[in-house]
Amino acid sequence: MTQALPTRSRKSNGGMRRVDLKNAQLGSNDIGRRINRDIVLQLIRTMRPVSRADLARLSGLQRSTVSEIADQLLGEGWICEGPSRRTARGRHPTMLMLNDALAVLAVDVHPKQVVIAMVDLNGSILASSTLPLGKDPEVSVKSIVSCLKRLRDSHPDKSIEGIGISVPGRVSPITRRVIFAPNLQWGAFDLKNAIEREMGLATEIENAANSCLISELWFGRMEGVRDAALVTVSEGMGAGILADGRLITGHDGAAGEFGHIPLASSGPVCKCGQVGCWETLASDTAALRYYAELVPAANQITYQELLHLAVEGNPNASVAMEKQATFLGKGLRMLAYAFSPEVVLVAGGVVSLWERTAPILERELNNPPLPGTPPRLQPTYEGGLARLRGAAAILLQRHSRTDKTPASAG
To answer: What crossing angle do the helices spanning 52-59 and 63-76 adopt, rounded to 10°?
Structure first.
């Protein structure tokens, strides 16, 4: 089964629409050529290795069109030719596959740390490193760039297409600056251009939830899905919304900040200044607070340590996780009412305890029953790594649609 490919809208807001391989209209104009290219590249990614004849059969395109697109992708370095395959008639068609030498550098920014990795075209993480993150963005950029260079230089066999950055905040589609990130507190610092200038590589930046959603489309299991909501759960919370095949960005790219919608009239003060925001009740930070309230004398622990305690059967850790899941489910119900998605996805460390948390989320999401068909609830692919893989997907999704040769590793 093939996976559909997300493609960029022609709108200036950087929106994204999904190409459904079963329903796509094959055209001969510029838009049609882009769609055809997307279909061929996605089929090569999912069916690898695959012959030109099989590509024509699976896509419904003319063989001459497939050959033209394949030659273009070969020339740009996105794909390469593999060994020939003997067929029943004795022919030896040349097989096509993704270029294993091509990779992306991914940067996943959190309020207190940043994870940096090298990711290949299939979403496999080849190497990664975690750095502490300070409040001074200029100092942090120096550390990030230094790590990116070490990672690049340690893999001289890889050709680096560019850098993708996932951030815990909303990004202006015009300036590509972070315009709202209460947990990061970096103001309107131009992170994209600062890294791009130092590295000399094309760089893309996007909100973490949007990145994760595009990652699910690019690497995941969402063929045919046109309405979906994805929630990232970490130190804070955010949401990416796919409606009728389009990523909802809203005015100035600020759509999706459901973490800052109050669910309670009282509670901790959020970084945004409000009280009772969803992320103060359902984030990893909230779960750690619940545990600390139950065990005041305990040493400060990390969220991963909390998960470990819950797995070991610690009753206080289990209660904290259940409370987090309860409030997470209540917020998911809000999303379901607002957008009526076919699928609701959850990304983050909470996914590692999915067998425990999923029943709680289902209970809160569907009690009382939602109107119509309830959304399907599922974790993202490798939930804890979703944001990192999303950073890579943003770069790949935007750059695979341009007619240019991938940048060299040097």
So the answer is: 120
Q: Nearest 5°: phi and psi at 198?
A: -75, -35
Instruction: Please indicate, yes or no, if residue 91 is contained in any of the structural domains.
Output: yes
Q: Which domain holds residue 143?
A: 102-213+388-399
Q: Which of 181, 180, 178 is nearest to 195 (CA)?
A: 178
Q: Residue 127: which residues within 8 A CB-CB, separation 6 or more?
A: 117, 118, 151, 154, 155
Please state, in angstroms and rounded to a whole number, the distance separating the CA atoms of residues 78 and 164.
Answer: 17
Q: Are residues 231 and 337 in the same domain?
A: yes
- Residues 241, 275: one domain? yes
Q: Is the same domain home to 196 and 242?
A: no
232 and 376 co-located in one domain = yes
Contact (Cβ atoms closer than 8 angstroms) between residue 104 and residue 395? yes
Residue 394 backbone dihedrals phi, psi, to 5 degrees: -60, -45
End-to-end CA distance of the chain: 37
Q: Does one domain contain both 242 and 331?
A: yes
pLDDT tens for 23-53 read 444 444 566 787 888 888 888 888 878 999 9
Do 56 and 130 sit in the same domain of this protein?
no
In the block, which residue shows the tokens 């230094």?
146
Q: How far is the C-alpha of 350 from the C-alpha of 356, rounded, in Å?
A: 10
CA–CA dist 146, 166 (Å, integer): 18
Is the separation of the CB atoms in 13 and 253 below 8 Å? yes
Whether residues 228 and 338 share a domain: the answer is: yes
Strand arrangement, sheet containing 16-19? 5-8, 16-19, 246-247, 237-243, 228-233, 343-348, 376-379
Tell me how far apart the alpha carbons of residues 215 and 16 are, in angstroms, rounded to a whole number. Answer: 12
Amino acid at 159: S
Q: What SS3 class is residue 50?
A: strand
| Omega of the bond leading into 368 within 30 degrees of 0 (cis) | yes
Residue 281's nearest CA partner among 334, 240, 210, 230 is 334
Q: What is the pLDDT of residues 178-221, one digit of tens each?
A: 888 888 888 778 999 999 999 999 999 999 999 999 888 877 67
Its pTM stands at 0.82
Domain count, the chain: 3
Phi, psi of 265 (to 5 degrees): -80, -10
